[in-house]
Automatic annotation (TrEMBL):
SUPFAM superfamilies: Nitrogenase accessory factor-like
Domain Dinitrogenase iron-molybdenum cofactor biosynthesis: 15-102
Protein name: Diguanylate cyclase
Source organism superkingdom: Bacteria
Organism: Paraclostridium bifermentans (Clostridium bifermentans)
Length: 118
């Protein structure tokens, strides 16, 4: 299973970035191989529709879960339509977030946040 985490950097010691569509990187953790793959977020530099671009990238990478701060309605809908679970977490380092995920201590995102206005 592949889990993407919206991240502020490329290392396990870097923090979660709560901005799904505008985070700089996704750290993708493979639960089978225990490997991390770093993806540059395609939504980061988008002039508009950052959440849509990021969500489509997650779908294209065949990821089954995302850990982030929050999701706007468009990103939430794309992920939901593709059966990708979303979880929220406070700004912790990626290693600690993965530990919380393994212990089932993260809260699932079941409704979208507000639409971004600007």
């Amino acid at each position: 299973m592949k889990i993407a985490i919206s991240a502020s950097g490329k290392n396990l010691s870097d923090l979660l970035d709560k901005r799904f569509g505008r985070c700089e990187f996704f750290q993708v953790y493979d639960t089978d191989t225990k490997e991390i793959k770093i993806l540059q977020n395609k939504g980061n530099q988008a002039s508009g529709g950052a959440g849509i671009a990021a969500a489509n990238q997650i779908v294209d990478e065949d990821i089954q879960a995302i850990i982030t701060g929050n999701l706007g309605p468009n990103a939430f809908d794309i992920l939901s339509e593709n059966s990708i679970k979303a979880y929220t977490c406070e700004c912790l380092d990626i290693e600690e977030i993965l530990s919380k995920y393994d212990k089932k201590e993260l809260k699932e995102i079941t409704v979208s946040g507000p639409k971004h206005q600007g």
